[in-house]
Design brief:
single chain; mainly alpha
Length: 95
């Protein structure tokens, strides 16, 4: 179950997208009109945890199946929260 590098790369890229959403909402002053920045922070935390678990799985000499499972689960939770954040941004800007 060698999924650690794939999760690490994808989570790192999606973490950058979270920060882009947070920064963009802050610069435009739209962060007070919706909960999009709070949900983006939630997904950023999930991606940070997934990155940490993936990195730890790469660094350990033994195969850590449990780390891969939890990294996958937290990564998928981060994707779900990021999707919700993007939907919130879309609906907030459409008004």
């Amino acid at each position: 179950m060698e999924r650690f590098p794939n999760i690490l790369n994808a989570a790192s890229n999606l973490l950058g997208i979270c920060f882009l959403i947070i920064t963009g909402l802050s610069l435009t002053g739209s962060n007070s009109r919706s909960y999009a920045d709070e949900t983006a922070w939630g997904s950023a935390i999930c991606f940070l945890i997934s990155i940490g678990l993936s990195y730890y799985g790469i660094r350990t000499a033994k195969t850590a199946e449990g780390l891969a499972v939890w990294a996958d689960r937290i990564f998928m939770l981060g994707i779900a929260i990021l999707t919700a954040s993007i939907l919130i941004v879309g609906f907030a800007l459409a008004r």
